UniProtKB/TrEMBL annotation:
EC number(s) from the headed UniProt entry: 2.1.1.-
UniProt source species: Mesobacillus selenatarsenatis (strain DSM 18680 / JCM 14380 / FERM P-15431 / SF-1)
Listed name of the protein: Uncharacterized methyltransferase SAMD00020551_3006
Keywords, alphabetical: Methyltransferase, S-adenosyl-L-methionine, Transferase
Domain Methyltransferase: 49-139
Length: 215
């Protein structure tokens, strides 16, 4: 679910890595400290890791580098091909945040970077409920993504981007399902997670949610 953006990613796959390296001025601030953000998410993960929205495999690389056992889920065929070419032995599935094949065993953490905003807030709730059922107490969700503090923060960011003349970025911010910390905190807590947020650049926050008790 939340697959309406897949054609865009099939097209973007070819030059995605140029964008994240800061070569596209419009998205430079979104991907500021991209490598550091991925590294941090990987370091916060543990054990057997389920990764959603693997893209070209940049977070996957960090996870593998730390010796994690990784199960990847990616709905874009072109993105999957890119990642498969880098990590031939990776368990990589066609799926999305909510619908994905059965995994061979229990997992200890669920990670994702720059992707959770493809779900509406209702879909985010469905996803976190599902992960709450999958994880044992102490299991973790570690996501990094663009999030707004609140609606005022969102409006201010739209104003800045408009002033910068970044029409594509503005369109993304207005049309994709970017949410607020308030909404995310509520979703995680309702489903039995204790969550912490840390701001990593002007757009991106890391959220680290630890499963407290079985629901
Ligand atoms: C901006 S890229 C991020 C890729 C990688 N995680 C990174 O940090 O570079 C977003 C990825 O999420 C994938 N995606 C889009 N909708 C999705 C969904 N509903 N469930 C899982 N992944 C999704 C896209 O195909 C794309 O590969």
């Amino acid at each position: 679910m939340g697959r309406e953006f897949i054609p865009l990613f099939d097209e973007w796959a070819e030059f995605y890595d140029e964008t994240v390296s800061g070569q596209d001025a419009e998205y430079k601030d979104v991907f500021e400290n991209y490598e550091g953000i991925l590294k941090l998410v990987a370091q916060k993960s543990k054990g057997r890791v389920l990764e959603f929205g693997v893209g070209t495999g940049n977070l996957t690389e960090k996870l593998i580098g730390l010796g994690r056992e990784v199960y990847g889920v990616e709905p874009s065929k072109v993105m999957r091909e890119k990642t498969k070419a880098r990590f031939m032995n990776l368990e990589l599935y066609d799926g999305d945040f909510i619908q994905f094949p059965n995994l061979p065993g229990k997992i200890d953490s669920i990670v994702s970077t720059y992707a959770f905003h493809h779900l509406t807030d209702d879909e985010k709730d469905t996803a976190i409920k599902l992960y709450s059922e999958m994880l044992e107490t102490g299991g973790k969700i570690v996501f990094a993504d663009t999030v707004f503090l609140n609606e005022r923060d969102r409006n201010e960011r739209h104003r800045i981007v408009k002033e910068q003349g970044y029409e594509n970025l503005l369109k993304d911010l207005q049309s994709e399902h970017y949410t607020t910390l308030e909404v995310l905190k509520q979703i995680f807590e309702i489903h039995g997670f204790q969550v912490n947020f840390e701001k990593l650049n002007s757009y991106v926050w890391v959220m680290e949610a630890v499963k407290e008790n079985k629901k």
